[in-house]
Design a protein that fits this description.
The chain has 11 helices and 16 strands. By secondary structure, it is of the alpha+beta class. Helix 6 (about 100-115) packs across helix 11 and helix 8 packs antiparallel against helix 9 (about 180-220). The mean pLDDT is about 80.
């Protein structure tokens, strides 16, 4: 599209659609004849427009072009976005503490699902305040002073950035109907994309500021706990935990299996040791076992292996619901899913005839 705009040819805009000069095609010759049978400097029929004897064919909606340009013209789109971001000189994502929204989702949405209050026969989830209090009871926070004024929670840069974006403006206006040169079209597209990006950036900053404000209000008295966890990057309570992966906001979320028993084809029990069944917060969202481990549903005796799960379709994105589902399915497959009669998986516990074993489980037999 960018090359077309830079070509130096003339276009036509009509009712929000872009018309390109028509190369004669026998398939639309009938429409051309219809245009020629009308009088006046401008004639229109179907997908064709004739102006001053030149034919133009209807192509793309200009609104759709702007909405989808991030995909079809990523280089230009990224250049314009960089220009917009540079104009907003205030830094809004500063801070040395790794405090991202995946961590918040894990602490306040995923962890309460697996760690529940016991009140007789009723099991209730922890709310935010109760979750933070439980964490405070379980971990020993050092004497380091985690100030609430940490830059992650300082919303003043957001307000300053939003004010600068407001000065830039983001009004989207279609060009007037009629002939338009390639230079003029390119100018319009640049300004339209700039306005689109300014609007998206404004919405993103407002949403981020709102989330941080709500988080700060919800955790006002226990903010030091959250900052401590963010710096440490790991936590485990009652068999549920997480470990940061890399230097960003990604984690392995895990649940301990504890010791469990599986039986072979002949009904003999095998005692398997504790392990951590985990799901990463990044693609592919498939359950793994963190430790060096062996199991009929694991290919080898190694660490970080993916659990074999028939018919499992991993989710396409990170969310509390998706992570809970994958972790539960992986846990249940490992601890409860082995069927000694069907012998599904990479290995079987017993040693049937004509079966070549690569992993032995004899030492687990009790």
């Amino acid at each position: 599209m960018r090359r077309l705009i830079e070509s130096g040819i003339d276009f036509v805009v009509d009712s929000g659609f872009l018309y390109l000069p028509l190369l004669l095609d026998p398939a639309i010759e009938k429409e051309i004849r219809t245009c020629q049978n009308t009088s006046g400097p401008r004639q229109q029929t179907g997908s064709l427009i004739q102006i001053d004897g030149k034919h133009f064919v209807k192509t793309i909606s200009l609104t759709s072009l702007v909405d989808n340009y991030e995909k079809i013209g990523k280089i230009l789109y990224d250049q314009i976005r960089s220009t917009v971001v540079r104009k907003v000189s205030v830094k809004v994502d500063g801070g040395t503490t790794l405090f991202g929204w995946k961590l918040i989702t894990i602490i306040f949405e995923i962890m309460p699902y697996f760690i529940k209050k016991n009140r007789g026969l009723e099991r209730k989830k922890f709310d935010r305040e109760a979750m933070l209090k439980l964490i405070a009871e379980k971990i020993n926070i050092t004497a380091k002073n985690y100030e609430p004024s940490n830059t992650f929670f300082d919303l003043r840069p957001f307000q300053a950035a939003l004010e600068e974006l407001d000065k830039l403006g983001s009004k989207f206006v279609l060009p007037e109907d009629g002939m338009i040169g390639s230079a003029e079209l390119g100018n319009w597209l640049f300004k339209a994309l700039e306005g689109k990006i300014i609007g998206k950036e404004r919405a993103r900053l407002k949403d981020e500021a709102l989330k941080r404000r709500k988080l700060l209000e919800a955790a006002a008295e226990n903010l030091d706990i959250l900052l401590y966890i963010a710096e440490k990057g790991s936590l485990e309570i009652d068999g549920f935990g997480f470990i940061r992966v890399g230097s960003g906001d990604d984690y392995l979320i895990y649940k301990r299996s504890g010791e469990y028993i599986l039986k072979d084809y002949y009904g003999r029990p095998y005692l398997f040791p504790d392990c951590r069944v985990a799901v990463p917060t990044f693609n592919p969202f498939r359950p793994i076992v963190i430790e060096k481990y062996k199991h009929p549903f694991l290919y080898a005796h190694d660490s970080g292996q993916e659990i074999c799960m028939t018919g499992f379709n991993p989710p396409q994105g990170f969310s509390a619901k998706n992570m809970i589902q994958v972790l539960e399915e992986g846990f249940n497959a490992l601890v409860h899913g082995y069927d000694p009669k069907r012998r599904r998986g990479y290995h079987s516990l017993d040693d049937p005839r004509q079966y070549v074993k690569t992993v032995e489980f004899v030492e687990y037999r009790i």
